[in-house]
Write a structure and sequence with these properties.
about 325 residues; alpha/beta; Purple Acid Phosphatase, chain A, domain 2; 9-stranded mixed beta sheet; 7-stranded mixed beta sheet; 16 strands; about 20% helix; about 25% strand; metal-binding; metal ion binding
């Protein structure tokens, strides 16, 4: 399988080790001071339009200030219908030529969104794009061990039943999925095992679709029923997603999990809010922007920025260095 070659061609010092069950696992070197910082961006690839270039500029500025280690993409990487193939110029026009700041020349870890599934999925997953721009790493589901944190990237699009039963005129590239029920069952099994075996100080799960949101799409019922119980049972700290074109922070009312939406990388949906479910809502912004994450062994800080780089919302959390016996 060509995925085993991925880290032999990248220049970011990553190392690949054995898998957790079927999930590919990558090592992300930590800073010598023991701190970890990264940016989170979603729903962005529009060749610079809808303020994508402006958001990218501010990401570069904040990325330099925080000395970020990498960037996380929550999916819908290329609009409107993914990439047509490996030679699609949209990859360079929406990625390489947009995120040009020195601070953003780090590894990008990306999941697929529903719009990506409307194009040639294999193009985003394959080696060719990594040869064009070695920052690029997009897989269906995988794990990044960043020492302080383990980040579990989950392919959420196949969970959503309506994409199979009511595609609304869209064509989805389901190659590699096979029977969706079996695919989801195997993914859940692998994720459960990986989360259970993790000894990371911080556990973060990243998917494209929201579990909790008051934005346009709202809660994803399939994730509420199938994924959320696993997160709760395994002490996951943060679930990060895109899909809704907004910035959002919701605290779970039944567990310590924080739901963090960063799907405002370009086109945003002004005024498109579902106000009937506001329990735990800490912050919502219906404009463009991105999120930063800073972690130490005992503290986490999340910040949301608008298209001008202004901090809209900041949230801090602490945890004990050592668990009580």
């Amino acid at each position: 399988m060509d995925l085993c070659l991925v880290l032999m061609i990248t220049s970011f010092g990553l190392g690949m080790v054995s898998t957790h069950a079927e999930l590919q696992r990558f090592e992300q070197p930590a800073k010598t001071d023991g701190k970890l910082s990264f940016l989170v961006l979603g729903d962005w690839g529009r060749k610079g339009a809808f303020n994508q270039s402006e958001v990218a500029h501010q990401m570069g500025r904040i990325g330099e200030k925080l000395d970020v280690d990498f960037v996380v993409s929550t999916g819908d990487n290329f609009y409107d219908d993914g990439l047509t193939g490996e030679q699609d110029k949209a990859f360079e026009e929406s990625f390489t030529q947009i995120y040009t700041a020195k601070s953003l020349q780090k590894q990008w870890y990306s999941v697929l969104g529903n719009h990506d599934y409307r194009g040639n999925v294999e193009a985003q997953l394959g080696l060719h794009l990594r040869k064009i721009d070695s920052r690029w790493l997009c897989l269906r589901s995988f794990i990044v061990n960043a020492e302080l944190a383990e980040i579990f990237f989950v392919d959420t699009t196949p969970f959503v039943k309506s994409y199979f039963t009511d595609a609304k005129g869209h064509t989805y590239d389901w190659r590699g999925i096979g029977n969706p029920r079996a695919y989801i069952a195997n993914l859940i099994k692998d994720l459960k095992l990986a989360l259970r075996e993790s000894s990371a100080k911080w556990k973060i799960v990243v998917g494209h679709h929201s579990i909790r949101s008051i934005g346009h799409h709202g809660d994803t019922k399939e994730l509420v029923s199938k994924l959320l119980p696993i997160l709760k049972a395994n002490n996951v700290d943060f679930y990060m997603n895109g899909h809704d074109h907004c910035l959002e922070h919701i605290s779970d009312t039944e567990s310590p999990i924080q739901f963090l939406t960063s799907g405002a990388g370009s086109k945003a949906w002004r005024g498109d809010i579902r106000e009937q479910k506001t329990e735990g809502l800490k912050f919502f912004y219906d404009g463009q922007g991105f999120m930063s994450v800073q972690l130490t062994r005992s503290a986490a800080e999340m910040a949301f920025y608008d298209v001008s780089g202004n901090v809209l919302h900041r949230w801090n959390s602490t945890k004990l260095l050592y668990s009580s016996i």
